[in-house]
């Protein structure tokens, strides 16, 4: 039994060392991309890589653990040969992945992903495009890595050999159960509520260092799982030229004019992104009194968009929509794929170039949805999450409760240099709704299965109100625009059905003294969505917004009125007069229409053209 445990530990360390050497080769090959980066930040690549390396090691160890457990029962030479063969094969595959990534990174500027399958269909094209020196170096490196590490494995890991033990029919299953459980925990990155993602390794503003820290084998497996079945023709409804013409026509402004809301000055911008807040929580929109009374009181001094829609149904989709102006796609989250989101613009980066300081505050774990890596790409200068906050702060299963995060954010803005853009992303209205039960907050007077969610929204709302009571006296407050909105919707006591236009309806309130008096307490009934926010703010600041072509200016009186949303395997399309939702099912394309049938043909065509063009962009 001792030899079993020792071999298992040595095998885990063996794979960690293998990944260390591969990462060292990668950093050596592309050290020029880290020119000017302090040595300490470069060296930090190795500790930041450990969690993903450990996860990858656990995946690779799984078949070996099974064979080692069998060796506790049977003294069979073929089990040793089979175990050696498994490790040799894994070494070969991992070495090919590692060296293949090094070979293509200089041209792709991204890690190996599912696209490698497209190239492997024509392997001779890869051979012809590589120089003789590149091919020779790659082959030699693979031979040295595989040969060298297999020799280490044979001499240091697999010796002494695992031998059968007494009461083997008891100890062998127990060993397999125990080791298997540890492997499963390691695969998911620990016992945290959120499984590990690439974000766990991201730490630097230097893209190459982040890519080096992400385990190549783990990343490729994840890419195949998440994106391996991407089919460019999945949503082909018409000729591409026709789809392009339809979308171009939809985007046309009725008249070209300039609308200035706050005079073009560099105002501070604070996003308060409310987890899961649907319009059904808001009395003025479609909700019930007594749930979000503080939000309701803020409406009297703000501009409320009454037909504002979320473009997706997950928080990471809201991030890409808000900060890159890019709508979510059916089936895939762009924040999971660096090769895709690296092509997107960034509101934070554009504001940073204009002299803004940028920050992001969240009480939970930014590994969720790979949000941390996406935000690093966006260029946020400071990102604060649960692990960065005082350990003594009360917290729930997912992180710090909203009441404390609001106070932390207020204190941070007091020391922030103006102008600034800052994001506060709430947490408490996400299940399991374990926020404190406070007498001053109270509970909603509603009995329903969604009452825990409603009470969590009431809790967040109460401290949202307290937040504004406290910040009003700060020196930076008069020059600050607050953008308060829901990131996506959630079922409530009102029973709004999922995958309907009404379900995508979320609150959006612009608030602050920078708004002119003529807009305070007013409502805007134009159809707008999250992808319209970045372009609208940049145009108000007099900055270039040409990269945000999927959205339109929400302040422009002649801008087209439409909202797109993703619906798992299809999409939805909202116009002032009608709406259309289409889903790709096993039986074909299924659609639902809302509104006057006179508008059916045009709304259906617009919806399909927009989805087709969006998906084509993603696939190429």
Structural features, described:
The structure is a single chain. This protein has 620 residues and is of the alpha/beta class. The chain has helices spanning 2-29, 39-43, 45-71, 77-108, 116-120, 123-129, 132-157, 168-187, 207-213, 216-227, 240-250, 293-298, 315-324, 338-341, 347-353, 371-378, 402-414, 451-471, 533-540, 600-619; strands at residues 268-274, 302-305, 308-309, 357-362, 382-384, 420-425, 480-486, 508-511, 522-524, 528-529, 563-566, 570-574, 578-585, 588-595. Strands 5-4-6-1-7-8-2-9 form an 8-stranded mixed beta sheet. It has a 4-stranded antiparallel beta sheet with strand order 11-12-13-14, covered by helices on one side. The longest helix has 32 residues, at 77-108. It is globular and about 85 Å long.
Q: How far do the termini sit from each other?
A: 53 Å
Largest sheet: 8 strands, mixed
- Whole-number radius of gyration? 27 Å
As laid out across the biggest beta sheet, the strand order is: 5-4-6-1-7-8-2-9
DSSP strand count: 14
Helix proportion range: 40-55%
Question: What tags apply to this protein structure?
Answer:
Alkaline Phosphatase, subunit A, eight-stranded mixed sheet, 2 domains, single chain, alpha/beta, 45% helix, 620 residues, 20 helices
Architecture blueprint of SSEs:
Elements lengths: L1 H28 L9 H5 L1 H27 L5 H32 L7 H5 L2 H7 L2 H26 L10 H20 L19 H7 L2 H12 L12 H11 L17 E7 L18 H6 L3 E4 L2 E2 L5 H10 L13 H4 L5 H7 L3 E6 L8 H8 L3 E3 L17 H13 L5 E6 L25 H21 L8 E7 L21 E4 L10 E3 L3 E2 L3 H8 L22 E4 L3 E5 L3 E8 L2 E8 L4 H20 L1
Parallel strand pairs: 1-6, 1-7, 2-9, 3-10, 4-5, 4-6
Antiparallel strand pairs: 2-8, 7-8, 11-12, 12-13, 13-14
Helix pairs in contact: 1-3, 1-4, 1-7, 3-4, 3-8, 3-9, 4-7, 11-20, 17-18
């Amino acid at each position: 039994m001792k030899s079993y445990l020792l071999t298992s530990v040595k095998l885990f360390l063996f794979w960690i060392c293998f990944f260390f050497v591969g990462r060292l080769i990668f950093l050596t090959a592309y050290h020029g991309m880290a020119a000017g980066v302090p040595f300490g930040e470069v060296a930090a690549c190795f500790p930041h890589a450990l969690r993903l390396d450990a996860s990858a090691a656990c995946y690779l160890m799984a078949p070996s653990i099974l064979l080692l457990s069998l060796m506790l029962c049977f003294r069979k030479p073929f089990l040793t040969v089979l175990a050696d063969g498994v490790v040799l094969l894994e070494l070969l595959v991992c070495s090919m992945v590692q060296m293949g990534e090094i070979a293509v990174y200089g041209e792709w500027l991204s890690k190996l992903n599912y696209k490698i399958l497209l190239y492997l269909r024509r392997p001779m094209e890869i051979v012809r495009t590589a120089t003789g020196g590149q091919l020779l170096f790659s082959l030699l490196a693979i031979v040295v890595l595989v040969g060298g590490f297999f020799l280490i494995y044979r001499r240091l890991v697999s010796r002494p050999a695992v031998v059968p033990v007494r009461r083997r029919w008891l100890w062998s299953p127990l060993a397999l159960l125990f080791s298997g459980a540890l492997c499963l925990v390691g695969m998911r990155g620990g016992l945290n509520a959120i499984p590990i993602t690439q974000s766990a390794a991201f730490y630097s503003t230097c893209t190459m260092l982040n890519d080096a820290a992400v385990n190549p084998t783990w990343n490729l497996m994840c890419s195949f799982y998440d994106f391996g079945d991407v089919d460019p023709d999945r949503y082909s409804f018409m000729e591409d030229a026709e789809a392009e013409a339809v979308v171009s026509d939809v985007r046309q402004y009725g008249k070209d004019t300039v609308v200035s809301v706050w005079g073009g000055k560099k105002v501070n911008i604070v996003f308060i992104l409310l987890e899961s807040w649907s319009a059904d929580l808001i009395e003025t929109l479609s909700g019930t009194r007594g749930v979000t009374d503080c939000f309701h009181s803020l409406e009297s001094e703000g501009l409320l968009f009454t037909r504002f829609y979320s473009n997706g149904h997950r928080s990471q989709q809201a991030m890409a929509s808000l900060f890159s102006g890019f709508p979510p796609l059916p089936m895939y989250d762009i924040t999971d794929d660096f090769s895709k989101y690296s092509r997107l613009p960034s509101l934070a980066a554009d504001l940073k170039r204009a002299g803004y300081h940028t920050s992001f505050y969240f009480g939970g774990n930014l590994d969720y949805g790979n949000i941390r890596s996406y935000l690093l790409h966006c260029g946020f200068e400071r990102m604060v999450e649960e692990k960065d906050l005082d350990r003594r702060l009360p917290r729930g299963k997912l992180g710090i409760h909203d009441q404390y995060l609001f106070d932390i954010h207020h204190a941070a803005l007091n020391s922030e240099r103006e102008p600034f853009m800052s994001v506060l992303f709430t947490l408490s209205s996400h299940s399991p709704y374990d926020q404190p039960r406070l007498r001053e907050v109270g509970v909603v007077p509603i009995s329903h299965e969604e009452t825990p969610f409603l009470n969590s929204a009431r809790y967040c709302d109460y401290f949202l109100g307290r937040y504004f009571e406290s910040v009003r006296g700060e020196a930076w407050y008069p020059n600050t625009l607050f953008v308060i909105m829901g990131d996506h919707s959630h079922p409530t006591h009102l029973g709004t059905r999922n995958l309907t236009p009404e379900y995508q309806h979320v609150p959006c309130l612009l608030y602050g003294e920078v708004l002119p008096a003529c807009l305070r307490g007013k409502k805007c009934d134009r159809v707008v969505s999250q992808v319209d926010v970045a372009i609208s703010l940049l145009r108000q600041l007099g900055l270039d917004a040409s990269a945000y072509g999927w959205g339109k200016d929400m302040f422009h009186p002649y801008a087209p009125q439409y909202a797109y949303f993703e619906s798992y395997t299809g999409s939805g399309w909202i116009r002032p007069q009608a709406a259309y939702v289409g889903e790709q099912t096993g039986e074909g394309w299924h659609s639902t229409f809302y509104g006057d049938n006179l508008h059916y043909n045009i709304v259906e065509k617009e919806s399909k053209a927009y989805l087709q063009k969006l998906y084509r962009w993603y696939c190429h």
